[in-house]
Every structure is written in C-alpha cells, then in structure tokens.
Amino acid sequence: MNGEGSESLSKTTKSILNKHGIRLNKNLGQNYLIDKNKRDQIINFGKLTKEDVVLEIGAGIGTLTIELAKRAKKVIAIEQDSNICEILNQRLKNEKIDNVELINEDALKIEFPKFNKIVSNLPYQISSPITFKFLDYDFDLAVLMYQKEFGDRMNGEVGSKNYSRLSAMLYFKCDINPLTEVSCESFLPKPKVDSIVVGLTPKESELTREEFNVYSKFTKALFQHRNKKIRNALIDSRHIISNLDKKEIKRRLNDIDDEKLNDYLTKRVVVLTPEEILFISKELNPIFND
C-alpha cells in the first residue's frame, strides 16, 4: 500500500481496514487521522532529524508511524490492539521500513525504551495518565493530539473554568504550546468533539522528587473540591494527604498561628496559583504527617 500519492489518506485508511475486516472501536480511542495535511503538519511540528528516536503511542495502522520513520533515526511504535499491530507490521514490511520497533503492549504498563521525542495521536481515554507517565522520562519535545477540552485544561489560567489539577500539575513540569486545532471531520470514525495538537517542552524543575510528590498529593486533594475554600477542601480530602481522622485534621488546622498560611486557608482552591499550592503543601505536610 504505497503512500497517498495516488489516493487520499482517507481512502487508503478505509481500504486497509476493509481489506482486513477491521471495525474501529471509538471506546478504545481508535479514531484514525484521515487528513493528510494535518498529518504532515503534526510531523513537521516534531522538527525531526536522523538523530531522533521517536516514541509513538497508539500507532494504529501507521498513519504517523510510516512518515515518522522516513525522517527519524528510529520510531518506537506502541499499539495495544494485536490485530491492528499485525496490519502495521505487514505495512512496514511492504514499505521496506526497518527502523520501527513495534511493541504490542499497553503503553501504561510498560517501561519505554530510550527516546528523545514523542509524536502521537493519543488514545483519548488515556490522555491524563499517559501524559503524566511521559513526564517521568527525559525528552526534548512532545507533539501530542488531545481532545480540545483536555488541551484547554492543560493550559488553564488560574481562576478560569479551565484551571484544573492538570494545569497545576503540568505547570512545574513543562511549557505547553497549543500548535493547531483539528476538526472532528479529520478522523475515522468521526468523534463527537474537535481535537488540538499541543507541544510539550520539559522544564528544568527546582523541585525534588519528594517535593513534587507532596505537591501532587495536595493538588489532587484540593482540586477534588475546586470551588471550596482550601481549609474545607483539605478536610474533605484528608485521606489523600494524611492518615489523620477528621477531628484531628480540624484541630491541627485550628492550631496554625501563621498569618500567611491562615489567609490562604480562607481562599477558594481555584484562585490559588501553583506556587501558592506548593507553599501550602510544604507548610502543611509536616503538620499533617508528623
């Protein structure tokens, strides 16, 4: 099946799926990109050279994989569906492409081989956990497709409806750059929502792993009650940050005599910056876990 020179990416995709009797499952995030211009644009965002080793999650039938392989030193393509994986394996043989390491596994459950860039049309139902997993690895650049709503929350401004645990968690980890929007018409089958392509560039964080883990717990606890006051959110989500019971958590909060900290406790979660949440986590963690 040689490229889209003679037929559109849409026709190529449908032809391959029909040939193998494959019915895509939207519930598994199997929405394949069929817009060649957007496909090429996404790959260009990766600024690939023959020095790059690219990680791709949800490789599918190779819409991105084959073109990535032509530009990069190597592609590590992970695809969970064994039938789809076999189709891609055959396509790679037909195209005489030998620089793709194809892995038929659940991306959330395996250690990734060494890579320096990520380019993926992610299965949407794993957007959050896979993004946080990426951030445990060292890489130069990630170009990732998400549902637009998810992409908006990644970059949510403090106090806005898009400000979320996701925004606060990513703040210390990476710079987030919206690159292009992608219409739902650009996929097969057509999802109900539009998508967005986002560039992630890791930040040099001054936080230790332990400090970030504590910050992560407090962020999770607070954003379960984003419109409540900090004090009440911490009491209601105490099981995430401490083993103390409700009565003892309240007592320790009442005993705090730091004016700055007490001021924060009266504010709503959604108006606190990531730096302020970090301050609260550093101050309160010893109080709740002595």
Q: What would you say this structure looks like, in words?
A:
The protein has 290 residues and is of the alpha/beta class. Helix content is 41%, strand content 16%. It has 13 helices and 9 strands. It has helices at 9-19, 36-45, 65-71, 82-94, 127-134, 148-154, 165-171, 209-223, 230-236, 238-241, 246-254, 259-265, 274-288; strands at residues 32-33, 53-57, 74-78, 100-103, 117-121, 141-147, 174-182, 187-188, 195-202. It has a 7-stranded mixed beta sheet with strand order 4-3-2-5-6-9-7. It has a two-stranded antiparallel ribbon with strand order 1-8.
Rounded radius of gyration (Å): 22 Å
Proportion in helices: 40-55%
Uncertain residue segments: 1-6
DSSP helical segment count:
13
Helix and strand sequence: HEHEHEHEEHEHHEEEHHHHHH
Main sheet strand line-up: 4-3-2-5-6-9-7
Strand content: 15-25%
Q: Using DSSP, what is the number of strands?
A: 9
Mean pLDDT: 93
Structural class: alpha/beta
Task: Kindly report how far apart the N and C termini lie.
Answer: 64 Å
3D shape: elongated
Oligomer: single chain
Largest sheet: 7 strands, mixed
